[in-house]
Amino acid sequence: MSQPTASSPSSGQRATILIILVILILVPFGYSVVSYMTVQAEPTEVFLEMPDPVHKECVKDTEYMRYHHWELLRNVREEVVRYGIRGEVSLDGCRDCHTSREEFCNKCHDATSLKPDCFGCHYYP
Amino acid sequence: MEDKPPETTPDNGNDRALLIDPDLEFIEMLGFNAGGNFKKCIQCGTCSGTCTLTPDVKSFPCKEMSWATWGMKDRLRADLDVWLCYQCNDCSARCPRGARPGDVLGAIRREVVREYSFPSFMAKWSSEPQSLLLMLGLPIALLAAMLYFRAPLEEALGIVPDTDSTIVYAYSAYFPQWMLNLFFGFFTVVTFLIAVAGVSRFWSIMEKGQHLRGRTEPVMGRWQAIYVGLKKALTHEHFGTCEKSHSRIWSHALVMFGFAALTAVTLWVITAPYNPLIKNAFVYPFAFLSPWKILANVGGLAALFGVCVMGYERVVETDKNAQDSFSDWALIGAVIAVLVSGFATEALHYVRLEPHRHLVYFAHLVFVFALLMYLPYSKLAHILYRTTALVFAERYGRKIGIEPAAEPEIPVIEREEVAHVAADSQ
After folding, report:
1. What sections of B13-87 are H helices per DSSP?
2. Distance CA B65, CA B38 (A)
3. End-to-end CA distance of chain B, in Å?
4. Could you report the per-residue pLDDT of B106-143, keeping only the tens digit for each?
5. Minimal CA–CA distance to B38: which of B79, B67, B9, B13?
6. A67 in contact with B at a CB cutoff of 8 Å?
7. What residues of B are in contact with residue A48 (Cβ under 8 Å)?
8. Which of A25, A32, A63 sits opposite B161 (nearest CB)?
9. % of chain A at pLDDT higher than 90
């Protein structure tokens, strides 16, 4: 009754394609399971390096700093570069507590493929 | 089948008359969605003869054309066969009267979806172009209200920002994780219940028809029928049999599996705080070369390519395709809007545009809401009803030639009564 036309895949081909697609969709899950099992031995609790306790707290609360620090820094840059207003906040101050860019800033920036242009000018160890 | 005389059904016996009460609104809607020519059908049967999918017994779409012109909504909503049609439009191309049976079956499916979904005003709004702004305005208003009342809501629900956690959602600045999970979680549950209710009604009405015809014995076990039906749906078995538009097998598969990939990634992301595999160190959005990000990007591009092919074929290769209806373009539009706004959100993240990316993300959320939460009312409801029909067809042996179940109670009156009824109704 129903014969597949020449240019459409046969039943076996369709089943094969389906299995391949399902496997492809499951690849990231498999990757996550494998990386979970292989990284198991290392302690991974510390994701972001904790700041040195020079100061008790940051210029704003953690919630704000986590989600809005880029807005804060951009506004500071605006004030300094355009209007010459040097306030209390500077990247210099950040370094007092967050000593390592690799262990602090880049942890999230790398994880989200972000390349902020702060460090093109500013030295940050 | 055994040797026995063919059953005479009440409606095709010559000694009885059938009282038909045409549903004029239904006929009007079919005309709106399928073009006005469907009443030109002369029941020649060319469509059923052309169809490569129809079983040989009580084949479609010829009988559905007759029911449609008479506005017999009760029969059509209980009819399994309209969902076995994949609208390749081989029949429309060969119809000598230009009645376009393929499009009529599409329009019938549209009306059947409206029939089974509730609340009925949602079904009505989602099927008419003038309500488009309203349907988009609803998620905009709901989401905006939640964002506006974020602080009091957090206080009322006792939500404290979890700053100790190293699960970081970069979009949480304006769209906190708890809010999105609550918002989409609630409406997904509601939509799921509506979908289950519609599908159960569809199934029980078809089974009732089966009982009325004295066919209560399924020919296949429940789980086997589900397995075979789902396998047919996933492998696109019926797409391959069309003569005119077999390219649709590729565009549909790209969209379907593209969205399967996107669903997998979404589930991984929204469950991250509770996922032991992630070990409390997770930053979203993903790195560009993370396997999850690659899956999401490839899936999204596949779906976008597929849906663009669908749109292109509708616009340019019109002879291959169905006549356009609002619901077709509403679905294509919603899919494109979801994908394009998603990719725009991603791009704006990489170029670090604040707060633009949040505005685009808001639009993306609105489109996602429209696509998912209007599923039981839109053309996307074919996921529910077509899959159900494929399973039912296996379970009750429709594909091996057993008559369809679609014969619900229709008042049958003796011939001598006809005159009285006719006189009464005037």
Report:
1. 24-34, 46-50, 62-69, 73-77
2. 8
3. 46
4. 999 988 998 898 888 898 888 888 999 999 999 999 99
5. B67
6. yes
7. 166
8. A63
9. 14
pLDDT in tens, B162-194: 666 667 888 877 888 889 999 999 999 999 999
Instruction: Indicate the residue of A5, A21, A26 with minimum beta-carbon distance to B243.
Output: A5
Contact A28 B292 (CB under 8 A): yes
CA distance A87 to chain B (A): 22
Helix, strand, or coil (residue B17): strand
How wide is the angle at C-alpha B62 spanned by C-alphas B61 and B68, nearest 5°?
A: 85
Q: Is A92 on the interface with B (CB under 8 A)?
A: no
Return the pLDDT at B6: 44
Whether pLDDT at B409 is above 60? no
Q: How far is CA B386 from CA A85, B29, B172, B288, B390, in A?
A: 66, 21, 38, 37, 6
Residue with tokens 């059953």: B7
Nearest to B101, CA basis, from B29, B141, B50: B50
Which of B240, B278, B350 is opposite residue A8, by nearest beta carbon? Answer: B240
- Of all residues in chain A, the one with the smallest CA distance to B172 is A67
- Rounded distance between C-alpha atoms, residue B30 and residue B238, angstroms: 24
Q: Quote the pTM value.
A: 0.87
d(C-alpha B396, C-alpha B405), whole Å: 9
**Taking each helix axis from N to C terminus, what angle separates B150-157 and B132-148, rounded to the nearest 10 degrees?**
60
pLDDT in tens, B311-352: 988 888 766 566 778 888 999 999 999 999 999 999 998 888
pLDDT digits (tens, 9 = 90+) for B74-85: 888 888 899 999
pLDDT score at A3: 45
C-alpha angle with apex B326: B72 to B340, nearest 5 degrees?
A: 140
Tell me which chain B residue has its CA closest to the CA of residue A12: B235
- Measured between beta carbons, the chain B residues lying within 8 angstroms of A27 are 291, 295
Helix extents (H) in B35-167 = 46-50, 62-69, 73-77, 90-94, 101-116, 120-125, 132-148, 150-157
Least Cα separation, residue B373 to chain A (angstroms): 24
Mean pLDDT of A45-63: 76
Total CB pairs under 8 A between chain A and B: 112
* CA-derived radius of gyration, chain B: 25
Quote the minimal CA–CA distance from A85 to chain B in Å.
23
Query: Does A55 contact B at CB distance below 8 Å?
Result: no
